[in-house]
């Protein structure tokens, strides 16, 4: 029986993954090695019971008692804390969905790669913070990384059978998020509730706000560079309000191959689950006659300064990705908590990058996980200060 684990099982991507596992036969079709979550203990225990998971882990040690209580009478072991997450990731599995939000997903992802098998990667932060470490861990462990972020799954699918040397450039699309059509002057007054609604995708709150600020797309540009080994000048972003075309690969001979689909993450997750085969998925069929028209436009970097920052991060290399992500996570925490305005997030991240660029080792590639986490901590402190 195929062994699977889901990190971030209580979240939006994790929930879509569980939906696919359930539809494919659940515990009768898969051996569920580990499921993890954060604060949503009720949900974690419920899916662990349903899928007869070997272990359920919450990231929060103070919730271990609640988890044990919620799992009482089941065969699922309960554990808590970052070390327990890493231990669960070290349990051999054939397919691991990395769907924790934030840099917290980095250690479990690296641990899973050391066991071999497939890492289905939704946690874009892993590649932004530590792309070279992720690839090195996969090579050492004999693991395969498959993209789950919709644009990167789209690129991966469009590249199938193609030679990377024939690629001229790659375009990833951006919906434009909640404030796509707002006057720029109004953005300073944008509320957390307004930023937490997405025009097309149902996702967790953090990535939804990152879509509105385009930090999500900025992260995805860096993710594309790290995943596919593209040069920064080969990666373009186009605003595409319909979210039907997810990415397009353009070749040196003038041909372009685009990937289209309804905005439903179960396609990208299911593709990674069934790869290298394809199987029917519970995803709405694409009816272009009903969609009518597909529109595209250049992104305005005055509205979305995060895109310019992504270019600067790629040019700087080294620890810039880890600093960028950590500063962005801290700025997002501060926006959600009402400490800063929506429009203060990008200047805050830019200031942290500028402040930390002069520190020794900033331009050097990440040596190991601990050094990445040191830079992550320092950048959060700088951002909070
Ligand atoms: N949602 C989407 O459609 C897409 C998401 N992604 C990426 O996938 C990842 C997950 O996103 P999404 O599902 O929206 O996020 P959610 O917020 O919906 O879920 C995040 C998951 O991570 C858990 N979690 C939160 N903090 C920690 C922590 N410190 N340590 C361990 N686990 C933690 C949460 O637990 P709990 O809820 O129990 O607290 C939850 O299980 C992100 O990297 C995102 O960028 C990429 C493409 C699309
Ligand atoms: C589903 C997915 O992959 C998200 O990252 C999505 O792309 C977010 O939409 P935006 O295009 O608004 O960032
Ligand atoms: Mn995406």
From TrEMBL:
Ranges where the 1-deoxy-D-xylulose 5-phosphate reductoisomerase N-terminal domain occurs: 4-131
This protein's pathway: Isoprenoid biosynthesis; isopentenyl diphosphate biosynthesis via DXP pathway; isopentenyl diphosphate from 1-deoxy-D-xylulose 5-phosphate: step 1/6
Keyword NADP in record: yes
Protein residues bound to NADPH: 10-13, 38-40, 123, 125, 204
Domain DXP reductoisomerase C-terminal residues, every copy: 260-381
Binding-site list for 1-deoxy-D-xylulose 5-phosphate: 124, 150-151, 175, 198, 211, 216-217, 220
Domain 1-deoxy-D-xylulose 5-phosphate reductoisomerase C-terminal: 145-228
UniProt GO molecular function: 1-deoxy-D-xylulose-5-phosphate reductoisomerase activity
Cofactors (names): Mg(2+); Mn(2+)
EC number(s) given by UniProt: 1.1.1.267
Enzyme class: oxidoreductase
Function: Catalyzes the NADPH-dependent rearrangement and reduction of 1-deoxy-D-xylulose-5-phosphate (DXP) to 2-C-methyl-D-erythritol 4-phosphate (MEP).
Record protein name field: 1-deoxy-D-xylulose 5-phosphate reductoisomerase
Lineage: Bacteria, Pseudomonadati, Pseudomonadota, Alphaproteobacteria, Rhodobacterales
Gene label: dxr
């Amino acid at each position: 029986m195929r062994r699977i684990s889901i990190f971030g099982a209580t979240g939006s991507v994790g929930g879509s993954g569980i939906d696919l596992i359930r539809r494919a036969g659940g515990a009768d079709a898969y051996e569920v090695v580990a499921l993890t979550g954060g604060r949503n203990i009720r949900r974690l225990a419920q899916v662990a019971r349903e899928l007869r998971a070997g272990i359920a882990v919450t990231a929060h040690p103070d919730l271990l008692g609640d988890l044990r209580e919620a799992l009482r009478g089941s065969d699922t072991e309960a554990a808590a804390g970052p070390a327990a997450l890493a231990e669960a990731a070290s349990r051999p599995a054939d397919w691991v969905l990395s769907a924790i939000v934030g840099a917290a997903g980095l250690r479990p992802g690296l641990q899973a790669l050391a066991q071999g098998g497939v890492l289905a990667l939704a946690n874009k932060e892993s590649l932004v913070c530590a792309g070279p470490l992720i690839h090195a861990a996969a090579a050492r462990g004999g693991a395969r990384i498959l993209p789950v972020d919709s644009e990167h799954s789209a690129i991966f699918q469009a590249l199938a059978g193609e030679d990377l040397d024939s690629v001229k450039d790659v375009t990833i699309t951006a919906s434009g998020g909640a404030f796509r059509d707002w006057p720029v002057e109004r953005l300073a007054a944008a509320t957390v509730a307004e930023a937490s609604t997405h025009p097309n995708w149902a996702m967790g709150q953090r990535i939804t706000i990152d879509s509105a600020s385009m930090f999500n797309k900025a992260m995805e540009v860096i993710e594309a560079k790290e995943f596919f080994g593209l040069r920064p000048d080969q990666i373009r972003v186009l605003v595409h309000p319909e979210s039907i075309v997810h990415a397009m690969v353009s070749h040196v001979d003038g041909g372009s191959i685009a990937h289209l689909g309804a905005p439903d993450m179960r396609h990208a997750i299911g593709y990674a689950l069934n790869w290298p085969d394809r199987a029917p998925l519970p995803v709405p069929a694409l009816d272009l006659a009903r969609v009518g028209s597909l529109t595209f436009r250049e992104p305005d970097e005055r509205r979305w300064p995060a895109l310019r920052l992504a270019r600067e991060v790629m040019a700087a290399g080294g620890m810039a990705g880890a600093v960028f992500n950590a500063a962005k996570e801290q700025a997002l925490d501060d926006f959600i908590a009402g400490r800063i305005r929506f429009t203060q997030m990008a200047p805050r991240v830019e200031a942290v990058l500028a402040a930390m660029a002069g520190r020794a080792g900033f331009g050097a590639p990440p040596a190991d996980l601990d050094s990445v986490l040191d830079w992550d901590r320092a950048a959060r402190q700088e951002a909070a200060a």
